[in-house]
Amino acid sequence: MPKALKINKSVDEGIKELLEFLIQNEKIKGVFTLKKMNDEGAVSYSLITDLDELKEAVPLYPFMPVNAGKVLSAFSLQAATKERVAAVLRPCELRAFVELVKRVQGSLENILLISLTCGGVYTLKSLNNGNLAKQLPQYWEAVKKAEIDPDIRVTCRSCENFIPHLADMTVAAVGKKDIDNECVILLNSQKGEDFALNAPGSAITEEMETADTEKLKKLRVEQKEKLFDDFDKNGVGTKAFIKTFAACLGCHACSHACPICFCTLCDFDSKSCEYQPLSFVSELSQKGGLKVPPGNIFFHLGRMTHMAVSCISCGMCSDVCPVNIPVATVFTRVGDSLQKVLDYIPGRDVEEAVPSGTYKEEEFAEVGEQ
Amino acid sequence: MKSAQKEKKSNPQKGKILPADEGTRKAVLDFLKKSLEKSYFDVLLIPAKTPETKSYSWILLKDESLLEQADPLPPVMTVQGGNALSSITKHGDPNLRIGALMRPCEIRAAVELFKLNQIDLDNISLISIDCPGAMPLQEYMVEPDKIADSFKTISEKWEISDTLRPVCQICHRFSLASLLPSSEPESSSDQSERVLPASDLHIGLIGTENKNIFFIPVTDKGKDILEKLGLSPEDSLQDWESKVEEMRKSKLEKKEKFNQEWQNKIEGTDKFVAAFDACINCHNCMRVCPICYCQQCYFDSQFLNLSPGDYLERAEKRGALRFPLDTILFHLGRMSHMVLSCVACGACEDACPMSIPVAQIFTLVGDQTQKDFHYVPGRNRGEPLPLQDFVEDEFGEVETPSEGAEVSTEEAEKNA
Questions:
Q1: By 3-state DSSP, what share of chain A in percent is helix, strand and coil, each rounded to 5?
Q2: Cα–Cα distance between B94 and B350 in angstroms, integer?
Q3: What is the pLDDT, as a whole number, of residue B47?
Q4: Bridge partners of residue B127, in order along the sequence
Q5: Within an 8 Å CB–CB cutoff, is residue A272 touching chain B?
Q6: Among B153, B168, B125, B186, which Cα is nearest to B379's?
Q7: In this structure, how many other beta carbons lie within 10 angstroms of the beta carbon of residue B156?
Q8: How many CA atoms lie within 13 A of A234 on its CB side?
Q9: Are the C-beta atoms of A145 and A117 separated by less than 8 Å?
């Protein structure tokens, strides 16, 4: 059975105690984690090096202002960090970072990856409604019972990848009835074990996957199947696709929030996708009218072909959309389908190449045959 | 400028009043239909309801039958009209005669973009319309029917409802006045002798109790449109003018209060920073802003990306470093780049996923800074952008310390 660290504090306080230990004993220079910005519930990822500032950290707060994969990519884009840091991030954020590392957009070196068995996050809008604080008890109840809080992101409700297999350390949350008094941090790798040496708390052994995580997985898969069923009935085909994106403003908030969309200048923001004068004339000669600015459907399909293979269904795209288009649902559905066909799970293994960048001589013969 | 105003008083502006028996929307669309039928325009640029949804999009419209779905004043402003227009002529004039019907703030944004070489106005006629405001976009997308109903009442009665977007509630530039070069404050630019109004033709709706609409020609192009459609501008505009003035005063009052309130809310570093506590640095505000036209925004570029060692050094200075980086720098930077052209359209606030009152903050700063430069964005196509214009006598009061505020050399050295 894998090793774990047990700290006799609430799961929030326990992880903070470990982080404090790591900084104080100079095992890490700093930690990337969520930090309170004000008393109204606003949080932001922060690279914290000072113990006083660490007091304001809220590592397990169920909110994702930005996908942390993007944050770590920005941090390690120019080079791998020479100083060791830790990062507390959710399973999907970790997978996103791994997908970015594969694309030479960051480095895993010298980063201690701390994750958790994940109960999901609330939408960005839930902060605006001022309800987030009131929701927290409900959230943690669901986590303890290995159930689904109905108010979390759609993508979270349908996520079966809530167990972070590539983390060095994992805070056991799902199904743990005693998280108000006990914090169990699983040590998933040699690196995790090394960093935990002499850490406060007692050494125990504990499995990451339990009957409770299995229970939640089943519930999440049920939700996913419902989501996909609904989409397959109403969202498939050209007409339906156009209807789904009919209200799109072309603001590209989705692509900019997406961790996988790393291009500094997206093709769809560049001149190459802007219409030449003749295109307007020619389209108008064929149709009675033309939506301007043009190219929204093309943008979504193009973005999809570029990144769906690595879509980790974090749900940031839907959250930032000003007109409530369920972008994440569409991309998750297509991503899931595409990933199955390619036998690929984004973020499961940093050595596994992205399929769209690999050549296999024999592949999809069944499609080529008449 | 002053002589133009005198001229206005002795030669009162005339327009054409048309009945709106089936409602003002129908009357406006009938006019536009005629302009297509008589081939005055090749295409129109107008918002239309997107089929099978309750949202609206800009349509470059050739086929008259599509006018059935068109609406000159939708309850929401989805894409800012300046952006829609800019996408059409960005790579050259398609040689289509376009009649573009837009809200005053969208017309003014288009004029600012014209000054920035982002729009070619040669083949475009800008038609402005009295604007009752718009409703918050995100609220509308959640409950379109309810919000559309509220808007119907608000726009018919010209109410200054607190359900309108906050920047619309204080907007005194909802009509023709600020689309004219003579709009207060008087320009300080020496180059403003080039007087080119923003709008070619204006459609007046206020003051008619929805029984009529007014067509007011502004430029020769505008006069030409009316003449070619057999509409001679010979009617008095008094009813419209007096109601516009009344509404303008009410809005200005609200604006005064707003300015005071917001000055208190965000003045000073601490308060300004706190306003952006919930900002996730997504840059939506910048992307929907008509004035932010840069292909690649500086704040999206790699200029701001540092090495891990540099990030850690910065983090250690303060004990913690917020990621994504440079949230406040982004807002202040964007502000310093565009606020002199800010037309207070509110697109930024509509697009913010964290409901930060971006438009209200930028409108406040825009208002104050534009006043300092005696500038109203978009009122005059011939008026140069303040930062592109050299005015010899300017801001003397800032350069020379005021009397009694003399600082001794000793003190100055101490304070340095």
A1: 45, 15, 45
A2: 31
A3: 97
A4: B101, B201
A5: no
A6: B186
A7: 14
A8: 12
A9: no
DSSP A187-248: E-SHHHHHHTTT-SSEEEE--SS-HHHHHHHHHHHHHHHHHHHHHHHHT-SHHHHHHHTTT-
Reported as type and span, the H/E element at residue B56 is strand B56-61
B119 residue type, one letter: I
* B388 CB-contact burial (10 Å; exposed 0-12 / middle 13-18 / buried 19+): exposed
Q: Which residue has the tokens 């208002």?
A: B367
Residues forming beta bridges with residue A122, ordered by sequence position: A63, A152
Compute the distance between CA of residue B24 and CA of residue B211 in angstroms, rounded to an integer: 7
Residue B296: phi and psi, rounded to 5, are -125, 115
Q: What is the pLDDT of residues B108-127, one digit of tens each?
A: 999 999 999 999 999 999 99
A82: chain B residues, CB-CB within 8 Å: 308-309
Closest Cα partner for A231 from A76, A83, A336, A152?
A336
Residue ranges with strand state E in B278-401: 320-323
Judge whether A277 and B93 are in contact, CB under 8 Å. Answer: yes
Instruction: Write out chain B residues lying below 8 Å of A24, CB-based.
Output: none
Terminal CA-CA length for chain A: 52
The answer to whether residues A331 and A257 touch, using CB atoms and an 8 Å cutoff, is no
Alpha-carbon gap: A280 to the closest alpha carbon of chain B (Å): 7
- Mean pLDDT by groups of 10 residues along chain A of 370 residues: 95 98 98 95 97 98 98 98 98 98 98 98 89 90 98 98 97 97 97 96 96 98 97 92 95 98 95 93 93 96 97 98 97 96 95 90 77
Q: Give CA torsion, residues B227, B233, B234, B237, to 10 deg.
A: 170
| Chain B hits for A298, Cβ within 8 Å | none
Burial B30-49 (b: 16+ CB within 10 A, else e): ebbbebbeeebbbbbbbbbb
One-letter amino acid of B339:
V
How far apart CA B7 and CA A318 sit, in angstroms, is 55
Task: Name the amino acid, one letter, at B116.
Answer: L
Closest CA relative to residue A81, chosen from A90, A91, A89, A72:
A72
> Cα A244–B300–B263 angle (5° rounding)?
90
How would DSSP label each residue in B200-236? SEEEE-TTTTTSEEEEEE-SHHHHHHHHHTT----EE
**B402, pLDDT greater than 70:** no
What residues does A169 pair with on adjacent strands?
A114, A187
Q: ipTM of the predicted structure?
A: 0.95
> Which of B65, B87, B95 is closest, CB to CB, to A294?
B87
Q: What is the pTM of this model?
A: 0.94
User: Which of the 8 DSSP states describes residue A122?
Assistant: B
Q: Give the β-pairing of B98-102 and B124-129.
A: parallel
- How many CA atoms, within 13 angstroms, populate the side-chain half-sphere of residue A105? 20
DSSP B57: E
Pairwise CA distance, residues B369 & B375, whole Å = 9
CB contact under 8 A, A246 and B79: no
CA distance A260 to chain B (A): 15
pLDDT (tens digit, 9 = 90+) per residue, B144-181? Answer: 999 999 999 999 999 999 999 999 999 999 999 999 99
Reading the block at residue A264, the tokens are 């500094």
Using the 8-state DSSP alphabet, how is residue B414 labeled? H
Q: What is the mean pLDDT of chain B?
A: 92
Strands B320-323 and A43-48: antiparallel
In this complex, which of A76, A80, A320 lies closest to B282 when CB atoms are compared? Answer: A320
Residue B128 is given by DSSP the state E
